[in-house]
Specification:
This is Integral membrane protein. The chain is mainly alpha-helical. The chain is built from six helices and no strands. The protein is elongated, with a radius of gyration of 19 Å. The mean pLDDT is about 90.
Amino acid sequence: MSQRPALAHAAAALEAVEGLTATGIGVFVGVETAVGRPVDAASAVGVTVLALIGGVAMLAVARGILLGDARSRAPGVLTQLFALPIAWSLWQSGRPEIALPLGAVALAALVALLSPANTAWLSREVDDDREPAGTDS
């Protein structure tokens, strides 16, 4: 399977949306911390740094999925598995306007990443590295 499946595009796009959102939150919190008066400056700086690092990492994972790098599948799945309990926590906190989109994106990305077509496409380079049966090394 040499052609990129549509679900790979979907998984990469959803991961990129999450990465851009996290990066945007990091920039917003950083600007608000620098300009305003945060209640706890250390926490605000920590949130800024974590959001920026996490956002950039998610964008790198999205790029890897789009390029067909099999190593990007596990971090992509982990991202979604972390997002689901966060969405549930937001739901229980009375924030459905954030919980529902986050949960929907996480579920859709998880389905796209774990789809049989995407699995076959991402595992093709692993199969290409194996020696043909019957050859002696």
